[in-house]
Amino acid sequence: MTDYAHQIQRLRELGPRYSGNDAHHTLIEDVASELSALGYTVERDTHTFERWDIADSGSALKIGQKDITVSSAWPYSGETGPQGATAPLTLVTGLPKNWTAAAGKIAVIDVHNLDVPSKLVFDTWSDDLPFETVANPVIGSEFAGTDLTKAREAGVVGVIAIWSGLADDAARGQYLPFTRDYQGIPALWVPESERDTVLSAAERGDTATLTLDATKTPGASMDTLWAVSAGSGPNADEAVLVVTHSDGGNAVEENGHLGLLALARDAATTAHNRTIVFVYTAGHLRIPAVTQHGQATTAWLDAHRELWSPDTEGPTAVAGLAIEHLGAKHFGINPASGHYEPDGTLEPEILYATTSELAELTRATWSGVTIDSSTPLKPGALVHLGEGEPLYDQRIPAVALVTGPLYLLAELEGDLVDIDALTRQIDSFRRLLTHFAGPAESSSFGTVKLPTKEDKALAGAQVLHFVEAQR
Rounded CA gap, 72 and 173, in Å? Predict the structure, then answer.
């Protein structure tokens, strides 16, 4: 078994590493120890927050005397205690949702796992996008109007969200949505197989008991780690940022530390022209605990401008890498067994380059899912997925891998990672970092151009039109 395979096995043994839990702390300390052993001075930014955890077997739903299958609890929604909350059901539809009509009741909402045209999410540096559509429950959970604070304010007792267009096995254990602040109202996800039962019960106004036995822990903490490898050439006052994150629910989300450590190992033993800053971000699955805007790495950028901003006396960041979701296998429903499992293919890469120059460089150097080939994407007007987004927002030219399988945010066990593809991807990041940290002129990395307000407005209108057309 290769070293990468051992490290993937370590992730599987640790289990879900939700922000601030014991497994998350263990992985952070593992990485800190490895960086220290390489001779780095490991710095820490500690984030303190109120952690929400669901008890073992802490979620359940009963309509009348019938037990309903629960796919997962809605993270940071709310809690009922072990006794649950009992109230009539009612269906809430549309955007925006009329929560007032559900006051004193348990609201039922239908959430579609939308198959979204790629052009609504991504832009391209060439004529074509590498895939026509993108479907991920992250998108469905964001597009469905699932900010539950208004439901709480309207006096809704709880919320049941039904997955539509997502196989039961794929829906199980989804930790979604993960970008919300604490909602203050208990909510559960149920699978598509229960859809007709729950919708019919809601139309009749049947009584249900929703149980979400969760606890809140004030003063919980998690550490973002960072370490600096000083440049030794004439451009040592320029920096390259290498970013990943530490929290995740399975062996794909997040395994980016394997790439970060491999590049840190190289930098510790090989002279390089530019300074390299390695950032191991905590809070990707609890963004509201670390920042009010953007992805979690935004908090580190805000706190350490002296390591990247041209407005300080420290190094200026001229390029960056964001390493996430390495070696992701593609899963499907096996028609013979009916189980959700690897189908022998790899998940199509979502690989960003934020300038045309880096897109050209990436095409020439990248080998990953497709050997010796790549089609880097341009960020769309509305979103840059993953922890590369904060670099993009600060106009730091960067390449970011953020592949998005259906199971990305699910508590899924089993063999999720193709070690050969992971190895090729890490080696590709290695080639990019060698170029970024070497003698190449920083002007050759290009200039990041952010979308205008008009670009965002047009893109937003197109997304809204698409979502409305699906209803």
Answer: 5
